[in-house]
Design goal:
With 483 residues, this protein is mainly α. The chain has one domain. It is 87% helix and 0% strand. It contains 17 helices and no strands. The longest helix is centred in the middle third of the chain and has 52 residues. The chain is globular, with a radius of gyration of 22 Å.
């Protein structure tokens, strides 16, 4: 009875956390969308590309600041002890300090060889500070995630994003250009750090006990191996691409990715909740499979039409706002990234499920394959076709992820197509309708409004007819959340 009650409480808490976090993320993404939109009106591809390149460089440090201990603490079945928390914190901060010292030594010679000016330096410094502040937030975040207390975590995200984009846009309006990113990053990181310690106080204590973290290493080290492979696949390949296509080309790629990627934050929200939830359900195979099906359906229901809609509305924005025409070369890459992100919306949660139940070696093998494909296609196509070639390479690598669907069927007895049949069919239906509206060549504003309203009407009608069971379940969870 105690186990059954615990599972029921976990289901209720997980579901409410997913819905709450997802709804909060709609607000966050609204802020992020309009903030990025105004920034890309005020700033050009070169400035956007500069921030993206430096951000990718600093993001590399995060892979060296953790050896998977944070994920191991979340995945751990029993409650982490103070010694485990303190030892993990000590190891992480040691790695963070070493990383910052190394980049501090390397950067001056790099800045000299690349002819970097003050704006590059200040963006670099601000992101280093954000890296340090983020590491200090790790343990409070872990404790909140283990409790599935994502209401507090989402509050921090909302405040941070609101501050970042508000300050960045205001600074850009005052003509600060790329410096706007630096100012906004400093303020966001400081405020976020203060808030999370107010929500989940944890004494900053340096301590180390190998015995206390020995068990965590068994999970953490293989998990971190995957993150290192991911670093080679994503971060290093992005820097390699930036070196090939240049800062402006990388700015166009960054813009092309931004819109279609925004709906994927819903996926990120769900994965934050499902990782600890799947870890605790791994002994109940039926409930685990059902939980994975629910999360995949929920993700695809919202992500598929949102990505397609963004791809079809983007050209209208070019014609509606004259100053936005500078981003028109990024439309073709946007279409390729949209297609790859639709696939990622299914594949990424599946790899998250493999990690949560301890099948780390399975995800390691998949990551190795994707990394090899990335380093084959990205340089070849980028050198040959520039930034458009980069987007084609992203689509080809993403398409290879379909093999994960077979692995999910093998390990979890999960039929992806049967689970997602209605989101797939309804998304194809609105895609056909959007093609038809685009061919009418309406006035841009009228075209945008028509596409949005008609797509929502058709998509909602389809699911009211064919997905009544899922919709009733969803609204029942909303009712539970309000209690």
């Amino acid at each position: 009875m105690a186990v059954t009650e615990e599972i029921e409480n976990l289901k209720l808490k997980s579901t409410s956390s997913v819905i709450f976090l997802s709804l909060r993320n709609l607000g966050i993404q609204g802020i992020a969308f309009f903030g990025f939109f105004f920034l890309t009106i005020l700033l050009g591809p070169s400035d956007v590309g500069l921030f993206a390149v430096v951000a990718e460089t600093i993001a590399l440090l995060s892979y060296f600041s953790d050896i998977g201990l944070a994920s191991a603490l979340i995945q751990k079945k029993s409650v982490p002890t103070d010694e485990e928390l303190q030892s993990s914190f000590t190891i992480q901060q040691t790695l963070v300090i070493i990383s910052l010292i190394v980049v501090g030594i390397i950067y001056p010679s790099l800045a000299h060889s690349r002819h970097y000016g003050s704006k590059e330096t200040w963006i670099f410094i601000s992101l280093c500070f954000a890296f340090l502040a983020g590491s200090l937030k790790t343990i409070p975040s872990v404790l909140l995630e283990r409790d599935l207390n994502f209401k507090e975590l989402s509050s921090v995200d909302i405040i941070e994003n609101t501050l970042f984009y508000t300050i960045a846009v205001v600074c850009a309006l005052f003509g600060l250009g790329a410096y706007s990113y630096a100012v906004a990053t400093f303020i966001r990181s400081t405020v976020g750090l203060i808030i999370i310690y107010r929500l989940k106080s944890w004494p900053l204590k340096i301590n180390f006990s190998f015995i206390s973290v020995k068990e965590l290493f068994h999970y953490g080290v293989p998990f971190q191996l995957n993150t290192f492979i991911a670093m080679a696949k994503d971060r290093l390949s992005n820097l390699m691409v930036a070196g090939i296509i240049g800062r402006e080309g990388f700015g166009l790629i960054s813009w092309a990715q931004k819109g279609p990627r925004m709906p994927l934050t819903l996926m990120d929200s769900i994965m934050k909740v499902t990782f600890p939830a799947f870890a605790r359900l791994q002994e109940d195979h039926h409930l685990l499979r059902r939980s994975i099906e629910r999360s995949l359906y929920f993700i695809s229901f919202f992500v598929f039409p949102a990505v397609v809609g963004i791809a079809f509305v983007a050209p209208d924005l070019m014609h509606l706002i004259p100053r936005y025409s500078k981003w028109e070369p990024a439309l073709v890459p946007l279409y390729f990234f949209s297609a790859s992100f639709v696939i990622a919306a299914v594949t990424t949660p599946l790899t998250n499920a493999f990690n949560a139940v301890g099948k780390i070696l399975t995800t390691t093998k998949m990551m190795v394959v994707w990394t090899v494909l990335t380093w084959i296609f990205y340089p070849i196509l980028s050198l040959r076709y520039g930034y458009i070639g980069t987007s084609v390479a992203a689509f080809l690598v993403g398409s290879s992820s379909l093999f994960v669907w077979y692995l999910a069927y093998k390990h979890f007895h999960l039929n992806i197509f049967a689970t997602l049949i209605h989101p797939i069919i309804s998304t194809i239906l609105i895609t056909i309708i959007l093609f038809f509206i685009s061919d009418l060549h309406l006035y841009p504003l009228l075209s945008i409004v028509s596409k949005i309203l008609i797509s929502i009407l058709i998509y909602t009608s389809y699911h009211l007819i064919f997905s009544q069971k899922e919709i009733v379940w969803f609204f029942n969870q909303i009712k539970c959340l309000r209690k």
